[in-house]
């Protein structure tokens, strides 16, 4: 089990916290106005924690890569919860920007509500017209009809928030989905942490600038699935970390922290090891275009918990038929394409795949036996 000291930079102070799992509790938290659901537990490696710390100290974005399902998109939320849980509403200091294939960098800075402008142009009563104006959020004198995007909002927040709090957190998710111009169009904004709103003028008739507090630069987590190569100029402005797929013991920690109930302890660890063995077999012998990920493991365990009848063992690793029957029984939660479905339909006919999965399972057991406290 991992036991890491989490150290987040907070201005001139360090917040130190020893924990096995970030935000392990999944209870509902009540505030004066609403209930907030805590994010799912997130178990970082020591190296990932270090990468986050470096990004905080340097004030640079952290670019995170890894295969789908490894936890890239959940990292930023887990960090925000860890830093701001004590405020009662960590989401006030956490923003998300989910990039799509047609996304433009401008959307993250600000957008102009042209519909509102058109509607006001058709109103003749000046009193009504004034009441319908939309002003730049947080600043009544900086322009009408302007809605800040996630990057604009977090820049402004750094200038208005309690100075004793740490920097707010922004997730820019799947940046590689957009075209090549998208990251290039953010170079200046990420480098200087500021941008101009050319359509808006202040009281001095100067173009409005949105500037982040340089002493409290936001912590920006950017994720990529490597669908497209990112430009070198963009990469130079980021720190980089690749999240490896979890080991069987780390998978056990992830599932155990969700507190699903039912299958637990050694049986849950066995299921995690078999899952890792199946991943290896699919990668080396299977024809599936997509390997199974942590997301499939969580679904798998939920299904097993629902139907499991408290047998002595989930399966007998010494019996190929036992392993095959177990996988087949719950394979619907694992198969994400037709090739995987066919392979799982009758693993006794996929002897090489089944044998590889079992051998890998045994290898994990032997390796864990040499390492104390695997559970």
Describe this structure in words.
With 375 residues, the chain is an alpha/beta fold. It has two domains: 4-101 and 153-192 and 210-242, Rossmann fold, CATH 3.40.50; 248-369. Helices cover 40% and strands 17% of the residues. Residues 1-35 and 127-143 have low confidence and may be disordered.
Name a few traits of the molecule.
375 residues; alpha/beta; Rossmann fold; 5-stranded parallel β-sheet; two-stranded antiparallel ribbon; 15 helices; disordered N terminus
CATH architecture of the largest domain: 3-Layer(aba) Sandwich
- How much helix is in the residues? 40-55%
Given the C-alpha coordinates, what overall shape results?
elongated
- Spatial sequence of strands, sheet with the most strands: 6-9-12-5-13
Rg over C-alpha atoms, rounded to the nearest angstrom: 25 Å
Indicate the CATH class of the largest domain: Alpha Beta
Strand content of the residues, in percent? 15-25%
The residue ranges in which pLDDT falls below 50 over 5 or more consecutive positions are: 1-35, 127-143
Number of helices: 15
Compute the number of strand runs. Answer: 13
How widely separated are the two ends?
A: 6 Å
Biggest sheet descriptor: 5 strands, parallel
Structural class, by secondary structure, is alpha/beta
SSE string, helices as H and strands as E: EEEEHEHEHEHHEHEHHEEEHEHHHHHH
**CATH H level, superfamily name of the largest domain:** P-loop containing nucleotide triphosphate hydrolases
Indicate the CATH topology of the largest domain: Rossmann fold
Global mean pLDDT: 81
